[in-house]
Amino acid sequence: MTTPAARADRDDVLRYLCVFLSVAHTGSVTRSSEQIFKAASAITRALTQMEQLLGVSLFERRPRGMLLNAYGEAVHLRARRIQAEIRQAATTLCNGQSTRKDPAVLTQLLLSGNKLRVFVSLASHGQIAASCHHLGMSKSGISMSLARLEESVGQPLFQRTAQGLVVSEAAEPLLLHAKRVFAEVRHMQADLMALQGSVEGCITVGALPLGRTRLLPLAIVHLLQKYPGIQIKTRESSYEELARDLGCGDIDFIFGALRPQEENRQLVSEALFVDQVRIFCRANHPLTRTPGHLSLATLQHNGWILPRQDSPARRALVRSFTRQGLSAPQPSVESGDLAVVRNLLTHSDLLTACSPHQLRYEMEKGDIVELNVDLGDAERSIGIIQRSGCHPPPAMQALLEEVRKICASDLLPCSPPAASYTPRRTAELAQHCVS
Q: What pTM does this model have?
């Protein structure tokens, strides 16, 4: 468990980024001093403190200036991404004001680290007392940081309600970019560990129903056999909630059925294989005794367990019925929870439409069977969804590689992969953060 002190140390890197970026750009403490109007001694001290926090040296000190080493290049990549996120947040906030505010001033304030950290904690917990415990700060310290930030923005960042603090509509862009900033800080640490020969870090995966049954667990098992220091968290929710969390950096990628690209243009999809939706029921269901193929018209008025209306599997089923001039079946139960679906199937005469991968174990045991129904091209693409422009840390890249290999291997007899996949060399992972 990460302690408040450890979180503070990690996030304190932010307060040194302006100095670091300036020295990286100018290649000199003296020129940096002239650029950002700080004493050379203050710049040198800030760089030393940043290197102590990260546990590595970032520059080669030479008589004619400062040159980034491999660790410095890795930090520089993340630092520029952090700076871009904060600048965009500051510009959005200032442009929404009736009074003119300078985005550069707000950017400098947000880069202090502490105020941004306080804002994110209050947004997550909704209570000052809870944020005090989370951050290891006093109530007065948090209140002063929030007041200073709201003063600089020129408007309240929270609505004060009886239930606690709620992020204002105007402050939503700040929360989005702030979460992305702290995701970059987290990945910065993982990049440095990889350069030291240790692929570690914590990866959070948004697991959609198909992926979490078998494919994602297999990929995780293979990953941990190679890199036992990696920690994996899975988050199970609706696609809409996972996509929102992916957009702000709370999760690192989503694995499962892909959605049309136009649903969220900030996300990018990578198809790994094409899955065929099929119809299933319990063993010894009355329909299993019908010889030959079953028509969709025969099943139309049966009881159904179906996923959410906007899910790819539901859409594929509806297309199959529509092509034959039939109205789509109405579910008796609507659920994306596989535990619920499995138990309902085995204890009732309900039908369901899903991937055979989701019911593989029940089919092998003989509890659930596939009905002999031709759905036509009731297909959906399965793959990985990432945030556009993201730069995966080595641990995340390693898990993505395992997911791709699982989906392209012979472990998927039910559906062939959409395209061949050649895994990258493991040795490339340690260099990924500086590529």
A: 0.83
